[in-house]
Automatic annotation (TrEMBL), chains A, B:
This is Xaa-Pro aminopeptidase. Belongs to the peptidase M24B family. The keyword Cell membrane does not apply. Residues 9-138 form the Aminopeptidase P N-terminal domain. Its EC number is 3.4.11.9. One of its GO terms (cellular component) is cytosol. It comes from Komarekiella delphini-convector SJRDD-AB1. GO terms for biological process: proteolysis. Its cofactor is Mn(2+). InterPro entries: Aminopep_P_N, Creatin/AminoP/Spt16_N, Creatinase/aminopeptidase-like, Pept_M24, Peptidase_M24B_aminopep-P_CS, X-Pro_dipept-like.
Length: 460, 460
């Protein structure tokens, strides 16, 4: 692990977060960092990704340590590096040095953690060696796939309430992630004319992250088959008539994420059908962002996107009827089957390790409607929340060829007309939008999204 | 998962491997593929890395499946994709299609695996959900960190005996990994004049892999502090007098690895001291490769490297005495503290998931000598083995400042003279060498390693 020097203001931020937690709970909490996971043998490991909750309060990407938070104080539990490790890893910072960098109020060896467990809550780490250790030490199951219970649930609620809105230090990191992501998308567009494979565009984009000591915040999607929504393969060749959909975001070294999608024509020129649909998606994108304001329900933003898309498809003759009615019957979801977006922060779907605890206002649950069930965020917006806005249009064979759906929507889709848009398999436009007291600020605004500029950026 | 079409010759190779296993054991074996590991939340996962043993017999990078091998026959246990997954992941191949691509003799749903467990051996997968499942189904601990016992040990010995030497299909993949790795190192050298940070050179190298749908076979080392042997950070700025050490290797989509190190001057020009030490390391490298021949003990190759390095350092006035005596007393290990190399195949340290079972001939154990204990391979060489040859020279502060070592080697090191070589912190030259009936073939020979060519490649 590389641990840079930290500033006083960084430490002040961390202390402020710890104090705010103390204002919400009256019991201690222990948050583990987690460690790296083995790849094909024990010494060959995936890169460390410390737990997001740990990063929020400790600020540093450490491996196999824990922090105990009580009444605003932080106690670090960490073993000093073995003297022999200096041979292979160079000089590592000591426990006391790390404690100082995170503004800890005390520091102890890991072995003493067992003396400090009574009445403490925790949150399950994803990495299995650590959640096993959490379960053993606390003598209860602490499982990453199960919802927390009792004081663990109280802790989770307190932390989500803090992490729902971002402080200045978080925003500074999120802006860094956004800026590097913008650069990566520009690099991807610039690399397209010479690229033969999706993989080559991906390489151009991810190398921007690597050069900045960042990683991807999720596995990139770079595909000419945007209609496959979760596509993590990059084998297709690029053909002149294709649209390339790139959903690629950076993560800073302390874990803060960006999440951006652009769709551009391989040839540098949209076909007329591609441009028409692109502009429908862009209209939905712009309408949603214009609507973002404190107090607005995110679900209404989603429904607005659905309505604008339905209107656009009516204008193009693909859908028939009245936009509000079509949205009511979920006809938009034939072409826009996912939600308008999600929370963004330390996780690309922020706090999704806790299920819908962060995404859904207390008392709300996922809808079972075709056009609403995949909505990941259902809360009134508040200043300091960062959300994605990512409308899309897809021709997903599993949807459009589904006999039940075809018969249900037989009369609202002009299938004949739709067939003329066969070259529009998948389009998404996604930006990262901060809710402000005045409305919103698009952190990724430096990346153009209008069709003409997109064409120019992806031309030789 | 993307599963390409496979050829008849690929299937023949897989069947041949299965038949050879059947010739060695008279009990059935079940090999699990393993699945991906979660990163910061369950839906955000590290890329899949299927178990190497699975890849050896099944050939395809599948997730959460198992194969049962008995008497040369393969039975695939796999669940068909859920119909709903087509919405998000597109159409996935069915169990029967996958079975056909790997030349399976039968295919069943995962739930039936429990009917086929009696008397079967297995090998622990690294990923925890799978080794937990292995342990539960077989009703014994199957742990990735513990040596196998009983029939599991017999299976492990049989598989290592097969995987120690490579068939033509394996060699074709290993040559692909080597070729892309050579290209990446050339890209790294070419990127150096304009790069300000280690990370930028790393980006230039790894983007070559990404563009070919390959990954790194281990976390890259790209550093101006080569004396930190396991250095996975890339934050240093590049200064004109620095040497940049890059230990970067590709892994093909079916898991076969390369492992290559080059060291080049940031300025495009070695200093005279850097060039002198570089040529000592290169002399050791060349001497070792010249010595590789069937029947030769790999430990003797290691000792040859130690001797050539000792001789070179005597010539430079850094060591004093007779080379053989210095190697006997491990004085070479002050500057070359690791082994000359290791097996290479599906794993970059091939089969190291089984400890030293593959690396050490039966009946041999690690030495506790300072100059031998880190040797990962101790066997007579055989045609078809692929090994790395990677001599190095490092000034590791934890070694050279160690009071015990300083006093032990007080009289054999000219510390005064050594101080004149302060600008040589770390040099390694590593190639991938196939043992052939005629001697050896360097799979990475297309990447130059002589000082003059290295200078030219890293110059503007
Ligand atoms: Mn998103
Ligand atoms: Mn190596």
């Amino acid at each position: 692990m590389l641990i840079q020097n930290t500033t006083n203001s960084f430490i002040d931020t961390l202390r402020h977060r710890r104090q705010r937690l103390a204002n919400l709970i009256d019991f201690p909490a222990i948050i583990w960092s987690g460690g790296s996971s083995p790849r094909n043998f024990p010494a060959n490991r995936f890169p460390l990704r410390a737990s997001s909750h740990f990063l929020y309060f400790a600020g540093l990407p450490l491996s196999n340590v824990a922090i105990r938070l009580e009444a605003g104080k932080l106690e670090l539990f960490m073993d000093d590096p073995q003297p022999s490790s200096a041979l292979w890893h160079g000089e590592m910072p000591t426990r006391d040095e790390i404690a100082q960098k995170m503004g800890a109020d005390g520091a102890r060896p890991m072995a003493e953690l067992e003396l400090w467990l009574e009445g403490t809550a925790t949150i399950a780490v994803q990495e299995s060696a650590t959640w096993t250790q959490q379960s053993q030490l606390l003598n209860r199951w602490v499982l990453p796939q199960s919802p927390p219970q009792g004081i663990d649930l109280e802790l989770a609620k307190a932390i989500t309430s803090l992490r729902l809105t971002h402080d200045d230090a978080a925003l500074a990191e999120l802006r860094k992630a956004a800026a590097v992501t913008v650069a990566a998308h520009k690099a991807g567009m610039a690399a397209t004319p010479k690229a033969k494979l999706e993989a080559e565009v991906r390489a151009a984009m991810e190398s921007v992250f690597i050069a900045q000591n960042m990683t991807t915040s999720y596995n990139s999607i770079v595909t000419v088959h945007g209609e496959v929504l979760h596509n993590e393969h990059y084998h297709h060749s690029l053909q002149p008539g294709d649209l390339l959909l790139a959903d690629v975001g950076a993560e800073t070294e302390t874990g803060w994420a960006a999440d951006v999608t652009r769709t551009w024509p391989v040839s540098g020129k949209f076909s007329s059908t591609q441009r028409e649909i692109y502009n429908v998606v862009l209209a939905a994108h712009d309408a949603c962002i214009a609507k973002i304001y404190p107090g607005v329900e995110y679900e209404d933003i989603h429904l607005l996107a659905a309505t604008v898309i339905a209107e656009g498809l009516i204008d193009l003759g693909i859908l028939q009827g009245n936009a509000e009615d079509l949205v009511q019957m979920d006809a938009h979801a034939l072409f826009f089957p996912h939600g308008i977006g999600h929370l963004l922060g330390l996780d690309v779907h922020d706090m999704e390790d806790l299920g819908d605890l962060a995404g859904y206002e207390e008392g709300r649950e996922r809808s079972d409607r075709f056009g609403l069930g995949y909505l990941r965020l259902n809360r009134p917006l508040r200043p300091g929340m960062l959300v994605t806005i990512e409308p899309g249009y897809y021709q997903v064979p599993a949807i459009l060829n589904d006999p039940k759906l075809r018969s249900k929507y037989q009369n609202v889709v002009n299938w004949q007309r739709l067939s003329q848009f066969a070259d529009v398999r998948g389009i998404r436009i996604e930006d990262d939008v901060l809710v402000t007291t005045e409305g919103s600020e698009v952190l990724t605004a430096a990346l153009p999204n209008d069709a003409n500029t997109i064409e120019n950026l992806s031309k030789i």
